[in-house]
Amino acid sequence: MDMLIFEVGVAIALITLTGLISARLRFSVIPFYILVGMAVGPHAPQFGIVDLRFIESSSFIEFMGRLGILFLLFYLGLEFSVSRLLKSGKAILTGGIFYVALNFVSGLLLGWFMNLPLQETMVVCGIMTSSSTAIVAKVLVDLKRTANPETEIIMGMIMFDDLFIAIHISILTGLVLSGATSFGSVLLVSLSALLFIVLFLIIGRKSIKYIDKALNIKSSELFLLTIMTLLFLVAGFSETLHVAEAIGALMIGLVLGESRHVSRIEQQIMPFKDFFGALFFFSFGLTIKPSSLGGAVGMTLIAVVLTILSNFGAGMIAGKMAGVSNKASLNVGFTLVSRGEFSIIMANIGKAGGLMASIQSFAVLYVLILAVLGPILTKESPRLYARYERFRNREKRKETG
Question: I need a surface site. Which of 122, 319, 323, 345 has the fewest CB within 10 A?
Answer without folding.
Answer: 323
